[in-house]
Each structure stands twice: as structure tokens, then as C-alpha cells.
Design goal:
The chain has four helices and four strands; from the N terminus they run H-H-H-H-E-E-E-E. With about 120 residues, the protein is an alpha+beta fold. Strand 3 (about 90-95) and strand 4 form a beta hairpin. It starts with a helix and ends in a 9-residue tail after the last strand.
Length: about 120
Amino acid sequence: MTITETITELRSKAKELNLDVDVDDEDLIIRALTHLESELPLHFDEIEDEEEEGLTEQQRTDYLNSSSECPYCHSENISADRVEADGESAFGDVECEDCGKKWRDVYTLTDVEDAND
């Protein structure tokens, strides 16, 4: 169920229960109707999961241009696990200490240099 479908269903249920809901803000409608959760044929955690679909293309592009800050909240308080190699690529998990979001940096081989002394 999409957010729009959910909001439409919530508005309909509110009308059936004679609740005066004259608000366009979807988050406010969801919070206002939370107390009706047991009467509604949906679970609010499904709505939250829908909204967390991952990085947008703009966030991805911005992060690739400057990977020193969180792509979600732009905090510089991020920590990375060690980089692990797997065949032709490598990856490392990163977490923002401020907003708690996690993502994975993915690396590919672009060059090779002589390391003999």
C-alpha cells in the first residue's frame, strides 16, 4: 500500500468515525489517527518502512562528490567498518553517529601502481 493510498484510507476511516480531519499534512493525519490503529486495517510501521526506501539519486550523487559526511543528514560524525574485498570490488559499511542511518561504500579497481621499493 502506498502512502497516498494509506492517507486516502485514513481519511475515509476518519469520516466514517465522524472525526473532523481537515488537514492536508500527511504526517499530521497519521499522528492524529494513531489512536485508531486497532480499528484500521493497516499497521503504521508499514508506513514508516515505505518512507525509508534508501538513498535518493541526489543523495547518492552528493555523497559520491563528498563522502566525508552522511548522505542523509550531512553530519560529519560518521564511522566506517573495515573495507572488505570480494573479487573485483570492495565494500565497507558506514554509519552516521547522529541520525543512525547506515549505508555501504562500494569501491572498484581503477588503477594499479608499483609498490616495490
